[in-house]
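writing this on my phone so excuse typos. first protein, seq and then structure
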Amino acid sequence: MAEAASPPAALAAALQRIAPHLEQVERTMRDQLASEQPLVGLMGDHVLSSGGKRIRPVLVMLAAELCGYTGPRCVQIAAAVELLHTATLLHDDVVDLANLRRGQAAARAIWGNRRAVLVGDFFYARASSMIVEDGDLDILWIFSNTIRSMAEGELLQLESSFDPGVTEALYYKVIDRKSAALLSAASEAGSILGGVTRAERRRVAEFGRELGLAFQLRDDALDYVAGEAELGKQPFTDVREGKVTLPLLLTLKRCNSAEREQIANVLKTAAARTSELETEGPVEVDRVLSADELSPVVELIRRHRGIEDTDRRAEEHVRRAADAIAPFPEGATKEALIAAADYSVHRAS
């Protein structure tokens, strides 16, 4: 697959058009860092300053545009959705024992797990308050349901860690709840601002869900092919953390019994070493499995086309995303949304 170095023209034009609103989103998020506890501001500034694609605020705004709304409520909703995403990052890094996030030290690596969890809770609370302040009960319901879904997805992934018997159905259940749910919620919230019908809302929500699945599949492929500079973290982090993502899952389905046993032993080693390292303090992922220990797994994934077929599956979800909003009128906004979905599987980081 050829990788795009920059967003396609339709998406770039849309991003330029909504740039002033995205700047307002950034200011609004930072306004939410106000607290009697200085650590909230310090940690919040650290996480927000690390950048990120801000795809969720973009989806809120473009989905609203697609449905005929361009008013000021987009900023508050988009900021709340991104603040919720920021809270999940703080918690995810604790769960995953991650020391890097977007190329810089993870908050837990600087301030510790307990403080990272508590500040994440603060962000959840602030994001929820912003949705309550907006006052739309449909958006509030979507928001609360999404938080539940993401927590269930994280637990489901944690419970299936280091398990070579993970099924494709279970894998999709995890990424649907952990990753796709929030992009679907962002898109549907935008459509609600536009006042469209329930059927149209479902289509826009489905667009966000399919984009989210495609985005996560590409992320899972990149973990095996991109370097630390592109990923902002150590490569091969997923297998070191015991996550059986689609590239490895497809490989396990296709390889022979001796190869499956080899992969199972690597996962068993990673599980035992993680447990041992946790007793010493923060786990450094490169100590869980060495390059030599990882090499056979990476070679098997290459041999059994785990990366190529994961990317191909991601492209199928992009097509479904485009089909979901096909009935909406043609125009620059629709083109931008489809371009965003396509870009999600052609990005290099």
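second protein below, same order as before
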Amino acid sequence: MRARFRGLKALALVTKAARLRPDAAWASVDVETATTVACLQTWARRIQVLTAEAEAHEREIRTLVRSWRPDLLAQPGIGPIVAATVLCAWGYAGRIHSEAAFAKLAGTSPIEATSGQVHSRHRLNRYGDRRLNSALHVIVIARQRHDPTTRAYTQRRTVQGKNPREIRRCLKRYIARDLYRQLEAGTALDRT
């Protein structure tokens, strides 16, 4: 069994497993193999159904986000799921009174991490909307991998002695600030 699936990528593996047939040939080998084949086929078909359902939901979310705020999808690192998470946390214009309040809601506001006399360090904020914080984390990771400006910023801060966690905290704060400004400015344009 393992030799049949060795070396296949995830999609090809699921497709091949869904095509398995628990027939008499497998039963003649042994009961364990026949049961394994039946389970693999069932799980692979379930994976295919759930994948199709997830893709359909993502298309619907993309349609909703495009109809409400298509400018978010133009930002690097922001896909339909992340944009929907940001929009759900933000709500509507005027709900959050400042970018600092949005950063606090997102859990990206800096918190001093003092140790006696030293007051120059900050740590990640563990409070706020964890889904929004997770969405910002996804944006940061995507931009660190694909956005040249963010890569340059990361390299510059690394040379300055910041560790990756501190750099991500700073990037989350910058992204939260930019998103808040974009969301508020976009609604001001919609009202006029």
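Residues 70-191 form one domain. thats all i got for now
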